[in-house]
């Protein structure tokens, strides 16, 4: 695909990197539920674009020498308290895709006081995505 250093230099100012148990399962979720475009994927790593946002998935084992390695091995819930938000994706269609895929719908699509109609869904590792459009 491209050398890691070239990819790293090509990234925008803000990206999301998620540590996952199974990269392939994550890629399938992001493509099926959030309409992601996958630039590259292997057993260790995936590079995706979700509605204009660059997202990376790294398999847990790629962080074996990282300070988070021990915490990852406990199987605790990931990302609790963090919420990734994508504006411009239809929340009702996303909810339907999530249910079809078998994903957890954290909160059904509804109109919110902050001016969005949104749905909250969890990926296979429990990371929460709020997807919505302006009311």
Please name the defining characteristics of this protein.
135 residues, alpha/beta, 26% helix, globular
Describe what this molecule looks like in 3D.
The protein is an alpha/beta fold and 135 residues long. 26% of the residues lie in helices and 37% in strands. The chain is built from four helices and eight strands. It has helices at 4-10, 23-34, 69-73, 91-101, and strands at 16-20, 37-41, 45-50, 53-59, 83-87, 104-111, 116-122, 128-134. The strands form two sheets. The protein has a four-stranded mixed β-sheet, covered by helices on one side. Helix 2 packs across helix 4 (91-101). The N and C termini lie far apart (40 Å).
Question: Outline of this structure?
Answer:
By secondary structure, the protein is an alpha/beta fold. Helices cover 26% and strands 37% of the residues.
User: Based on DSSP secondary structure assignment, what is the total number of beta strands?
Assistant: 8
The helical percent reads 25-40%
Instruction: Estimate what percentage of residues fall within beta strands.
Output: 35-45%
What is the end-to-end distance?
Answer: 40 Å
What does the largest sheet look like?
4 strands, mixed
Succession of helices and strands: HEHEEEHEHEEE
The averaged pLDDT comes out at 93
State the shape: globular
Structural class: alpha/beta
- Provide the gyration radius in Å: 15 Å
Low-confidence stretches: none
């Amino acid at each position: 695909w491209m050398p890691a250093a070239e990819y790293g230099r090509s990234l925008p100012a803000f990206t999301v990197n998620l540590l996952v148990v199974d990269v392939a399962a994550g890629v399938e979720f992001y493509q099926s539920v959030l309409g992601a475009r996958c630039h590259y994927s292997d057993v260790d790593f995936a590079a995706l674009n979700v509605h204009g946002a660059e997202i990376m998935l790294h398999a847990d084992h790629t962080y074996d020498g990282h300070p988070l390695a021990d915490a990852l091995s406990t199987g605790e819930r990931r990302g609790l308290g963090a919420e990734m938000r994508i504006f411009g994706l239809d929340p009702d269609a996303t909810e339907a895709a999530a249910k079809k895929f078998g994903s957890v719908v954290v909160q059904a699509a509804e109109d919110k006081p902050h001016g969005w109609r949104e749905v909250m869904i969890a990926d296979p590792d429990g990371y929460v995505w709020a997807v919505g459009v302006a009311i």
